[in-house]
Amino acid sequence: DGGITQSPKYLFRKEGQNVTLSCEQNLNHDAMYWYRQDPGQGLRLIYYSQIVNDFQKGDIAEGYSVSREKKESFPLTVTSAQKNPTAFYLCASSMAHGYTFGSGTRLTVV
Amino acid sequence: GDSVTQMEGPVTLSEEAFLTINCTYTATGYPSLFWYVQYPGEGLQLLLKATKADDKGSNKGFEATYRKETTSFHLEKGSVQVSDSAVYFCALSRISGSARQLTFGSGTQLTVLP
User: pLDDT tens digits, residue range B63-109?
Assistant: First the structure.
């Protein structure tokens, strides 16, 4: 079955360390996205990519970086510059008629 | 810019009660409108959608009608079940190149008691 795989489901890191969240899709979707979700808030767009080797900042890109070397993969790095990295991170992909979300990675920075 | 405003939760209902979750939006043009559902610890699943004015989206007993005159897309269900307990997000989308950017409301937590 086609879908989006995010790994790991739970991730713990020490403050000041960079951490990379994985997102892989086998839907052949061109566009991919990273959203951040905080308790009681909606999803906020971090970065998105329309094609390989191209990506754009979303509403809250500061402290994050991405790459899109392959159509299937869109990893997100949470850098030490991100002041409040503890959150639930959702990856998504889309074609013309629909959006598909991964199951998310819960990052906790201690 | 685009924005979505949802009824604040949490909402607690008894099984078989009628559900309404209000959603209004601000956008130029004719965005597509969506309701997503999120079960604990999971990603979002599309519940229903409407792509033009007066369209009614429906799925699993849930319904929402795209009302351009009131810029609303309220979610309704005639008889909720315990299994409907989840967080519900209203969203709108517009296309930018090959990307479909979604703008979300803040989400409404629904708890259905047996």
Answer: 999 999 999 999 999 999 999 999 999 999 877 666 678 889 999 99
Task: State the SS3 of B74-111.
Answer: CEEECCCCHHHCEEEEEEEEEEECCEEEEEECCCEEEE
CB contact under 8 A, B43 and A43: no
SS (H, E, C) B30-66: CCEEEEEEECCCCCEEEEEEECCCCCEEEECCEEEEC
A34 contacts on B by Cβ (under 8 Å):
none
Handedness of CA B7, B73, B87, A40 (dihedral sign): negative
Taking contacts as CB-CB distances below 8 angstroms, the residues of chain B near A104 are 41-43
Give the tens place of pLDDT for each residue, A28-82. 999 999 999 998 778 899 999 999 999 999 989 999 999 999 999 999 999 988 8
- Distance, in Å, from the CA atom of A63 to the CA atom of A83, rounded to the nearest integer, reads 7
Distance of residue B70 Cα from the nearest chain A Cα, in angstroms: 22
- CB of A7 less than 8 A from some CB of B: no
Q: Which amino acid is at B55?
A: D
Query: Which of A95, A86, A97 is closest to A25 using CA atoms?
Result: A95
Q: How far is A96 from chain B (nearest CA, A)?
A: 7
User: How far apart are the C-alpha atoms of B13 and B25, rounded to whole Å?
Assistant: 25
Question: Distance (Å, rounded) from C-alpha A25 to C-alpha A74?
Answer: 9
Angstrom distance (rounded) from CA B20 to CA B22: 6
